[in-house]
Amino acid sequence: MTIFRTGLAALTLLLLPAMAQAQGANVAFGGLKHDSTLPVEVTSDQLDVSQADGTAIFTGNVLVVQGDMRLSSDRVRVEYGAPGTESAGRIARMHASGNVVMVTPQEAAQADEAVYTIDAGSVVLSGNVILTQEQNALSGARLVVDLNAGTGVMEGRVKTIFQPAPRE
Questions:
Q1: What is the pTM of this model?
Q2: pLDDT tens digit sequence for 51-87
Q3: Residue range 154-158: mean pLDDT, rounded
Q4: Whole-number Å distance between alpha carbons of 122 and 27
Q5: What are phi and psi of 2, to 5 degrees?
Q6: Is 141 left (phi over 0), alpha (psi -120 to 50) or beta?
Q7: Backbone angles phi, psi at 5, to 5 degrees
Q8: Cβ–Cβ contacts within 10 Å for residue 147, how many?
Q9: Buried b (16+ CB within 10 A) or exposed e, 21-35
Q10: DSSP characters for 36-59?
Q11: DSSP string covering 119-164, please?
């Protein structure tokens, strides 16, 4: 029975890379569990505000900070809640584009674009997504993160690189 368990464990280790290259992968994001009710601070080189459509566009070296989460990009379009709604005057969504990098104390992700829906506590990163967690890395076309649960799903020809633990 011990030989069977050892063989099964070895087979599982051999198949891990193939399983990780499937079309989608569920990922634990302990570092991305986040309180979306914290204040949002945005810094940029320029700000354009449109009262007509309730948006603000930050451009040039944009840095968005909320608690331990940091997001940087070339451009961020902030959409505010519509008048007469529960979220009126509050940030509803942030759409970041160009050299997007999202960092928490435990993880870092980069992508072409990211949409952060504040009330839902979700971030959708898309386009050439790369996620690093310690020494491990995942890549795919799209990463959907649930900040409330600290979970995520990587989609679109997922590739994973796991670093084995050092031998003692």
A1: 0.76
A2: 888 899 999 999 999 989 999 999 999 998 877 777 6
A3: 92
A4: 14
A5: -65, -40
A6: alpha
A7: -65, -40
A8: 23
A9: eeeebebebebbbbe
A10: TTS--EEE-SEEEEETTTTEEEEE
A11: TTTEEEEEEEEEEEETTEEEEEEEEEEETTTTEEEEESS-EEE-PP
Burial (Cβ within 10 Å: 0-12, 13-18, ≥19) of residue 151: middle
The burial class, CB within 10 Å (0-12 / 13-18 / 19+), for 107 is buried
Residue 98 has pLDDT above 70, yes or no: yes
Which tokens sit at 165? 């633990």
Asked whether the predicted pLDDT for residue 8 surpasses 70, the reply is: no
pLDDT of res. 163: 75
**What gap in Å lies between CA 116 and CA 108, rounded to an integer?**
15
Chain centre to alpha carbon of residue 31: 11
Q: Give Cβ neighbours of residue 67 (< 8 Å, ≥ 6 apart).
A: 34, 35, 38
The average pLDDT across 45-53 equals 91
- CA nearest 96: which of 81, 117, 80? 117
Paired with 117 in beta bridges are 93, 122
